[in-house]
Amino acid sequence: IGAFRNHSFSSRVAPYSRSLKTLVLAEHDGGSVKASTLSAVEAANLLGDGNSISLLLAGSGPSLQEAAQHAASCHPSISQVLLADSDKFTYPLAEQWAKLVHVVQQKGSFSHIITGSGSFGKNILPRAAALLDVSPITDVIEISGSNLFVRPIYAGNALSTVRYTGSDPCMLIIRSTSFPLKPASAGSVSNAPSVDKVDTSSLDEDDAVGKSKFISISSQDTERPDLGNARVVVTGGRALKSAENFKMIEKLAEKLGAAVGATRAAVDAGFVPNELQVGQTGKIVAPDLYMAFGVSGAIQHLAGIRDSKVIVAVNKDADAPIFQVADYGLVGDLFEVIPELLEKLPDK
Ligand code: FAD
To answer: What is the mean pLDDT of the chain?
Structure first.
């Protein structure tokens, strides 16, 4: 797939200088800050020298306190951890979070607000941007300065360079796979950041929040690696024909210590839940090895896998578009190939 750069703004526009102060909206689970948030911190580091980075954590109870401890020791670039402790944040609902970001921005006057591109960030940041009356920039894959960003367009077939000329804060959703955690950043905190509480009393009194409410959460087997960060991903498409048959993909993933992915057709057919969808409207993955079984290679699917290091495809149609991007391709029936692989691969 060819990519070209579309320089939307003239290079004669001089970059303007300002002091950098970045707020990273943090996602946490089970007492730990998620990897996508650490990627957002890595991205914040690229905005320029002297950037002071604050992490905003919201939640309630002991899991928030554990996450706060993790946040204070998980990345050397974090200078402040802001804690919003309220029952309103037990689950990350967009309305409450957006209001919180608004309150924190009014007090902190951040030049940038960043988050990762999972459903957490995509849900919250645009709503917060609307409250702050700025245009967010989504799907950022490269940061060339404090106001110059690269993002894919046309399902990743073109790259657009965008200069932000609006007022503060400049709000960004970054693709986590484009800003991996640097090995030097992991577990090397010498100066612990300050941990400050956010006053949430104005939110508690606000009737405007609370239009949506939390009903339930269902999550997949936590033993499998997270799809967005997995080193190996095994994906099944419509060709699997049923949820029962899709279990072959799950078994193969288990043997390979891989995450399971699916095409939108497989998700729409009800073989697997929506959270496994890979692609333009699903998750973006960048594993070392991506294995696609019975996947045609539609452009919207390829948009989510283009950063994979090695792509292996098995499809019974030799003309399937997936073979144009595959490093290794096998023309064959997955109902023969997968059982053979399961038989020959050793147990993990
Ligand atoms: P198909 O296109 O039906 O392909 C099935 C393939 O399996 C075929 O190539 C066939 O040759 C092969 N096959 C059949 N039987 C066997 C067998 N026994 N052994 C081996 N191979 C076999 N799709 C996504 O995946 N992710 C997205 O995020 C996404 N977003 C979208 C957003 C928009 C706005 C739109 C319009 C579409 C989006 N789609 C997305 C859908 C996308 O266009 C395709 O429809 C979808 O990816 C096709 O899924 P598939 O490859 O499983 O199915």
So the answer is: 89
- Write the ipTM: 0.99
DSSP E strand stretches across 28-77: 28-29, 32-33, 52-59
294: Cβ below 6 Å to ligand 1? Answer: yes
Burial class from Cβ neighbours inside 10 Å (0-12, 13-18, 19+) for residue 201 reads exposed
Question: Which residue among 300, 306, 322, 338 has the greatest number of ligand 1 atoms within 8 angstroms of its CB, and so is best to mutate?
Answer: 300
**Ligand 1 atom closest to the CA of 296, numbered from 1:** 9
Identify which of 70, 68, 126, 74 has the alpha carbon closest to the alpha carbon of residue 97. Answer: 126
The sign of the dihedral angle between the CA atoms of 136, 19, 189, 59 is: negative
Task: Report CA-CA distances (Å) from 55 to 112, 134, 205, 319, 321.
Answer: 12, 20, 24, 48, 42
Which pTM value belongs to this model?
0.82
Q: With contact defined as beta carbons under 8 Å apart, do 203 and 87 qualify?
A: no
CA max distance for the chain? 62
